[in-house]
Amino acid sequence: MAEVKFDPKDHQHIRYNPLRGDWILVSAHRMKRPWKGQVEKPPDETIPRHDPKNPLCPGNTRANGKVNPDYDSVFLFDNDFPALLDEGAPSPGPSEHELLRSESAFGKCQVMCFHPWSDITLPLMSVVEIRKVIDEWATLTQNLGSKHQWVQIFENKGAVMGCSNPHPHCQVWASSFLPNEARSEDSNQKDYYERNKSPMLVDYVNLELEKKERIVVENDSWLVVVPYWAVWPYETLLLPKQHRLRLTDLSSQEKDDLADIMKKLLTKYDNLFETSFPYSMGWHGEIGRASCRERV
What we know:
five-stranded antiparallel beta sheet, globular
């Protein structure tokens, strides 16, 4: 009997995620199984450009009684229902048992509206408008990163992703601690650099550019790929082609190119599914420069 040659598109195997340091199961042969799931287009949803009851719209009153300005671009404010506070929360004190550990957590949570209109999303915005969003992200990263160990900028788009408001916006969580995923990524990239004397993600960009197997879209400064270790359906990874640690390191041209490739990528999602595609998007960069509050 002839030996069967391994084909990653046909045979089960596990793949290593070098950022997280764990393995995932790939069972590509299961894509051949019969599927009779329901297929339908989502119902049409009419979102008003300005809803007088929407707390994120310009000029409207939020739950805490504060009135939004009549903003015409990005708008940033402190989250009215923050998951983290910088002050006022008591310390849990010493843990009663090593299996029942807790520590203090401090931080700052903000909300950033991308645009004054509620019926628009990032892929429908102009490149110039998206560039303004990126500029604000960079400013937030610098300001909050000087006081906190981690700054997480993320957008959950669509009700199916848990978004409670259709107005185009993202959230910013700055924390006194490193989240688990950021901690793993930081540790594994440091280990890789010590072994190879080169940054992991720079090497990965060059490898993907060479193989040209998983590239979704690219421009002069940025590359979007389906990562080799992808877990989620339609997962993509957006990477700079040059070594950049955080958004504040980007040149003006790189920010323009980032706005361009974000619009192209998100438009592809919308067009592929013929809907305003729901997603979760987050930025990961180097950890903050701040010396955080002393841990209990």
